[in-house]
Amino acid sequence: MKRVLVVDDSLSVARQLEKIIGESDDFTCVGHAKNGAEAIKMNHTEDPEIICMDMNMPGMDGLTALRTLSVMDKEVKVVMVTSLGGVGDKFTEALKLGAKNVISKPFEADNVLRILREL
What share of the chain is helix, strand, coil (3-state, %, to 5)? Predict the structure, then answer.
């Protein structure tokens, strides 16, 4: 089973993602970080293979954390999470910074799992 870290400042969004991941036979959720700084710390302690990270969070946002993670850990795969309205230029920037894909809110379980399985 691949280890997944969920990063989102919204507890309800994080729980939705954790539920989708937890009900899959392919993945296990190893934790929940509330911002980019926590994600960087938890990447060291939990050693996830995949990080599902919100783009917009207080403190350190997802794109800033992605910049740091892509330099610090070449193995981890980051999938950005965003609301449908928030894609645009940030989507392109996320891919340039090393994100593997983007998951849009609201979540469709089949789509989330398909994206994670493709990594």
Answer: 45, 25, 30
